[in-house]
Amino acid sequence: MQDAVGVAVVGCGYWGPNLIRNLVALPGCRLKRVCDIDEQRLEHVLGLYPGLEGSTDYDELIQDEEIGAIAIATPVRTHYELARKSLEAGKHTFVEKPMASSSVESRELIDLAEERGLTLMVGHVFIYCSAVRKIKEIVDSGDIGEILYISSRRLNLGLFQKDINVAWDLAPHDISIILYLMGDSPVSVNCQGKAHVSQGIEDVTNMSLNFPNGGLATIHSSWLDPNKIREMTIVGSKKMILYDDTEPLEKIRIYDKRVETPPHYDTFAEFQYSYHYGDMHAPYLKQVEPLRAECQDFLNSIRTGSKPDSNGWEGFRVVQILEASSESLRNGGGSVSIAPC
Ligand SMILES: NC(=O)c1ccc[n+]([C@@H]2O[C@H](COP(=O)([O-])OP(=O)(O)OC[C@H]3O[C@@H](n4cnc5c(N)ncnc54)[C@H](O)[C@@H]3O)[C@@H](O)[C@H]2O)c1
Q1: Which of 44, 96, 122, 221 to mutate to test ligand 1, by most ligand atoms within 8 A of the CB atom?
Q2: In whole angstroms, how far apart are CA 299 and each of 71, 137, 173, 230, 302?
Q3: What does the pLDDT look like over 10-33, one tens digit per residue?
Q4: What is the pLDDT of residue 269?
Q5: pLDDT digit string (tens) for 44-93?
Q6: Which is nearest to 92 in space by CA: 70, 124, 123, 114?
Q7: Ligand 1 pocket, residue 39 CB under 6 Å
Q8: Which pLDDT does position 1 carry in this prediction?
């Protein structure tokens, strides 16, 4: 039997404890240490998991030779520096979304991991959801036809962030799902938004991703909405899928609906739309905690050298789009091209 991989989690704020809970329970993983510069947060987590060692000093922690992998769940502005130090110390590295504050930083992390033969993974947890996996399976089977457009809404009251706008906070989830489903990167991005509460930090944004085959995806993100909404509609040429992540059981509904236009017509009078209304069905979804599947992929990748599904390049592609969205916001919603990677 192989030795368990020694792991440390950095950042014990809101999200870090979820990673800790999953890593503690994962066979083949030995969560050894947790780190936070805030002693109160550290004490809180050590109270929950008395077997763990705590540290407020990251530079000391990365010297620990019993630790082979580090998971980083700190604010975005710290991701690059912490991940770089982790990779330089020879540790496999998991970093929460978005991967870094710029595509240049993201690319440096990828190069560093590749040079050293280390796993670099990004926390795009939604691509590990059984609902998203099921949608991908349906899309790839051709059952819904060609994807015409995807529209996504992720709305909430808060949680306001101080250093990133709502697109950098919430849209990584939608972007990672859309890239996964489309199997392609957009050629350009447009984004409009407004800062109502904190000056210069948009709390509502509307982003459009334009794909090379003419496909379109729109993402509405907001911290200023009365309801929690996590909805994505995938409109295909044959069928349509509604994915509602707030639904406890029937998260996906497939509608056999479409609109058809006649192939030939000579005059506008002859032109007739034909609406097709068929059945709706909600496929069975296996209940698996996406974060557990994500942590498992990190561990498998460390053990086998395989690339995790949410690898550094996926993180890079998401950051590229976020960066373009910020540029578009600055120029009033104009189109910003995305360089192919
Ligand atoms: N995958 C998801 O669904 C999901 C959900 C929420 C947050 N996140 C991501 O998780 C990350 C953290 O978000 P959060 O909401 O938990 O933030 P948070 O502010 O609640 O927690 C961050 C913690 O990191 C600590 N920290 C900051 N700098 C540090 C350093 N240099 N060394 C050690 N500790 C340090 C802070 O003291 C704090 O306790 C972000 O990247 C965020 O986007 C992901």
Answers
A1: 96
A2: 11, 24, 22, 29, 5
A3: 999 999 999 999 999 999 999 999
A4: 67
A5: 999 999 999 999 999 999 999 999 999 999 999 999 999 999 999 999 99
A6: 70
A7: no
A8: 55
Q: Is the CB of 16 under 6 A from ligand 1?
A: yes
**Does any ligand 1 atom lie closer than 6 A to the CB of residue 13?**
yes
What is the atom index within ligand 1 of the atom nearest the CA of 11?
24
Once rounded to an integer, what is the mean pLDDT over residues 249-253?
A: 96
Phi, psi dihedrals of residue 324, rounded to the nearest 5° = -65, -35
Give DSSP secondary structure letters for 12-27. Answer: -SSSHHHHHHHHHHST
Substitution candidate for ligand 1 out of 14, 34, 164 with most atoms within 8 A of CB: 14
Phi-psi region at 299: left, alpha or beta (left = phi > 0; alpha = psi -120 to 50): alpha
Dist. CA 97 → ligand 1 center (Å)? 10
Q: How much is the pTM?
A: 0.96
For 107-126, the pLDDT digits (tens) are 999 999 999 999 999 999 99
Tokens standing for 332? 């009033």
Task: Please tell me if the CB atom of residue 134 comes closer than 6 angstroms to any atom of ligand 1.
Answer: no
Give the sign of the dihedral formed by CA 226, CA 158, CA 124, CA 4: negative
Tokens 């996406």 -> residue: 290
Q: Which atom of ligand 1 lies nearest, measured to the CA of 96? A: 41
